[in-house]
């Protein structure tokens, strides 16, 4: 997959998996995110992933899509260094983009996103995308294969 196609795929997906280094071990958690102008943004509340990023800002984000009926899959990984967004205008823009992207999501997600915890404690994280790679099923074998099956 070309970088442009990988970024397009990353931009379109709803769920990503954020991998950080917390002390001596990896830690992976799901995230909602948006991509704009070559930068991935997400919002996070205080906790393990935010504390880990403050110590070591290097991260990886993975997203994938599986079509079990067709036996096809696609996956993209993106790497970069996290930067905490201090500019409240940029932060507000990111929250607006997140709400727009997830406007069609299920009601519980929207209720949580628009709830009273939307602002004060949360941090907006920007990740300029250093490297983005993607693969699709069968890219090396010439035939589609289901994940985990050769």
Instruction: Tell me about the largest β-sheet.
Output: 8 strands, antiparallel
- Which CATH first-tier class would you pick? Mainly Beta
How many domains is the backbone divided into? 1
- CATH architecture term: Roll
Mean pLDDT equals 86
> In terms of structural class, how would the helical and strand content be classed?
alpha+beta
Counting DSSP E segments of at least 2 residues, the number of strands comes to 8
The best one-word shape is: globular
Distance between the termini: 20 Å
Assigned CATH superfamily: Electron Transport, Fmn-binding Protein, Chain A
Q: What is the succession of H and E elements?
A: HEEEEHEEEHHE
Which oligomeric state applies?
single chain
Radius of gyration: 16 Å
Question: How would you characterize the overall build of this protein?
Answer:
The protein has one domain (3-136): Electron Transport, Fmn-binding Protein, Chain A (Pnp Oxidase, Chain A), CATH 2.30.110. The chain starts with a helix and ends in a 14-residue tail after the last strand. Strands 1, 2, 3, 4, 5, 6, 7 and 8 form an 8-stranded antiparallel beta sheet that branches. The longest helix is centred in the middle third of the chain and has 14 residues, at 88-101. The chain has helices at 3-12, 48-55, 88-101, 107-113; strands at residues 16-22, 25-31, 34-36, 39-44, 58-67, 72-81, 83-84, 123-136. It is 26% helix and 39% strand. With 150 residues, it is α+β, with helices and mostly antiparallel strands. The protein is built from 4 helices and 8 strands; from the N terminus they run H-E-E-E-E-H-E-E-E-H-H-E. The model is unreliable at 107-118 (pLDDT under 50).
């Amino acid at each position: 997959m070309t970088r442009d196609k990988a970024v397009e795929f990353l931009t379109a997906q709803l769920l990503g998996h954020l991998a950080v280094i917390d002390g001596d071990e990896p830690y992976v958690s799901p995230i909602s995110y948006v991509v704009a102008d070559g930068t991935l943004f997400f919002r996070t509340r205080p906790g393990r992933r935010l504390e880990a990023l403050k110590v070591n800002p290097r991260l990886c984000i993975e997203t994938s899509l599986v079509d079990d009926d067709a036996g096809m899959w696609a996956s993209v990984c993106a790497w970069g260094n996290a930067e905490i967004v201090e500019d409240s205008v940029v932060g507000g823009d990111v929250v607006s983009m997140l709400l727009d992207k997830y406007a069609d999501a299920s009601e519980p997600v929207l209720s949580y996103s628009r709830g009273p915890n939307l602002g004060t404690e949360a941090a907006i994280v920007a990740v300029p995308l250093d490297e983005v790679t993607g693969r699709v099923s069968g890219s090396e074998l010439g035939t589609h294969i289901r994940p985990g099956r050769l």
